[in-house]
């Protein structure tokens, strides 16, 4: 028989105290912690996860980055009410990567995710081991899940439920802790960044406290769909909601120093808050270690879709009459919300146009990994670390049009695509596509 791994996760309430002089916030998360428990799964090993809902709101679980069959993809209306559970089946057939699981329930994804329903799911491909990157979960391979929260004077979370545009948050959290510090050895580390915030994008850089103003260079080695073709040396990294970037930072020369992870500026139309320029601190201590890990010049041959020039779909992400829409359609418009019908096994080119004024939208397409081909009418061109790997989320700046190309291969079925600003998503900036068999 087949080897299927079974897990059980209970969504339940817990308390978290951020301010010593205010009460604790009541959150609800997977297994009562936030981020939820980290899954580490070998590529090709199937998993079944029973998500038991013992929280207050209905939920739907999406494993973001997975080639899931439609019934297990966290369809927004496939909700599990409090007191019920659902078993989700994951084939884990995609390339090794950092996935994340989070809530996707209709109309209150922002609330559920913000109150704790997000966690990391690492799909490990044994082929990666030969590369000798820094390894060992929790020792020198560490997920860093960014989020931004806002608290009320009594210490509870300021709810996103009544927001209609954004919730930026003025308290930056990493792995659920506000502005934490991490003790590291003078050696290389692999950090898996995920921006799990509701509406906040980051421009990250590392700075030695002893040399303020000088950015520490690092290598971007992976994005949403796993390893890039080759490491990209940078000194700053854009990351937007739901994007994942993995980096290798070498603290080898900074023994006895502190290195601060900073946020250079808020991307797009974000509000300005005083303390959002810093994220966390690394305290480099301990003795020089024998660090045999490395960043090889070639990482893998990325399975880019066969390139084609024809454009199959053009989608406008817009704001009309105070509502967020895609090509004039909202997700509530059930009869019209299937906006594309790619044939299974074919490659399609989609143009994503931001025609919503100064707003920004990180656009996520479920089921597929895409290549970012072109970026026009905005401030950036395609970044090397966007282009050298496959992605499932792409940031759309004000006025920009981004062209993406994907192989609609894994399965047939109806899947969602949407803005990953969770307020926009809940306010109907979401549609569906139907992959049909040829
Ligand atoms: Cu990360 Cu449709 O979501
Ligand atoms: Cu997804
Ligand atoms: Cu948006």
TrEMBL record:
It comes from the Eukaryota. One of its GO terms (molecular function) is oxidoreductase activity. Residues 16-126, 307-436 form the Plastocyanin-like domain. Keywords: Copper, Signal. Belongs to the multicopper oxidase family. This is Bilirubin oxidase. It comes from Neurospora hispaniola. The chain holds residues 63 to 500 of 612 of the full protein.
